[in-house]
Amino acid sequence: MAVDIVTFGCRLNTYESEVMRRETEAAGLGQLENGAIVFNTCAVTGEAVRQARQAIRKARRENPDTRIIVTGCAAQTEPASFGEMEEVDLVIGNDDKLKAQSYRALPEFGVNQFEKVRVNDIFEVTETASHMVDAIEGRARAFVQVQNGCDHRCTFCIIPYGRGNSRSVPMGAAVDQVKRLAENGYHEVVLTGVDLTSYGPDLPGKPTLGRLVRSILREVPELDRLRLSSIDSIEADDDLMEAIANEPRLMPHFHLSLQHGDNLILKRMKRRHAREDSIAFCEEVRRLRPDAAFGADIIAGFPTETDAHFANSLKIVEECGLAHLHVFPFSPREGTPAARMPQVSREIVKARAKRLREAADAAWLRHMNGLIGTRQDVLIERETLGRAGDFSLVEVGATHAQPGHIVPVVIDGHDGAKLTAKPAFAVAAE
Fold first, then answer.
1. How far is CA 32 from CA 29, 64, 116, 117, 150, in A?
2. pLDDT of 425 above 60
3. CA torsion sign, 207 to 211 to 213 to 214?
4. pLDDT above 70: residue 399
5. pLDDT the model gives residue 395
6. Alpha-carbon distance 383 to 373, whole Å?
7. CA gyration radius, the chain
């Protein structure tokens, strides 16, 4: 019986779940009579944690004899609370989830004396090893982890406590993983990390993300498309800007860790950029790459946010020319400085999030209208749906292309290749 891996959250978790699939099988979990379910959780918001708990309880009701293991960021940051759940058999930390021996420690049913919670101090982890995978189950594009952890301490963010300090995968190992996936038929690879643009300073020679990008494109000529997950534009290095300007295989979609449009709120968040920095970055990228599209994460209702502060977030959607917006209603995370700041009422938070999503819809529509009549290479994801290079979702009509293949289309907006409707908000590369 195969091990069921349930993944919440980011693309990094998706990649790590593929490693976990291999390691749990190596540990023998697939040979258990009643199987095993491993929950790879997310802690970015309180809602993400709540959804994980809800899914665990449902899984136990539907699978009373199956072994349930919980790991991921929520398990790392709240180990005791998951350990107290009677539905859970074992809780392991974010670093240990990638090791087969962690799963071999699963106790037998009926054994009362065992260490149910096995979560170590994530800040003691100083390296990120390369975990080679051959495929990403159910995905048309592949993800490659090149960085983990974060050295910054934004006042709203719990993730460093789930991931530890920043550490990078050696360049050679990252290039080898991309090459392996390209040889296995993947036409697009997405580089992922917790703080992707902080890649490299812990490695010999202190390479940058831009240098890694250029090395991958040089050493893996068979790869058609390379995409970046969320980036911090203030950390964009000269090599990355050079790649944006001159490497057509680097996809022209850049998802920014923007978070807000007001300088005072950005300061209270302990972000390292000002609103002017984000606007200047988008202008410069458009100059270098006129077909570029931008997405962004924005938090609505951060503590102390006034109507005037919020108005600057609304304005920056147009000032940066954002096409895809991921709106987060502020969620206080226990243990973070922002949770102790004066809070905005939940009604106002929800209302502001709604207005941001409406602004996102209008920005998306402007972007989509600008694509009508253009030629786009679309990576088929399922049946007749795929993503253009700028991550626009396109319906390509009748096609014999298999998921994962790239087809050229002309966007006509009518009966042929057309842009699809979208949900209230769109996210970065899946």
1. 6, 14, 18, 21, 37
2. no
3. negative
4. no
5. 83
6. 23
7. 22
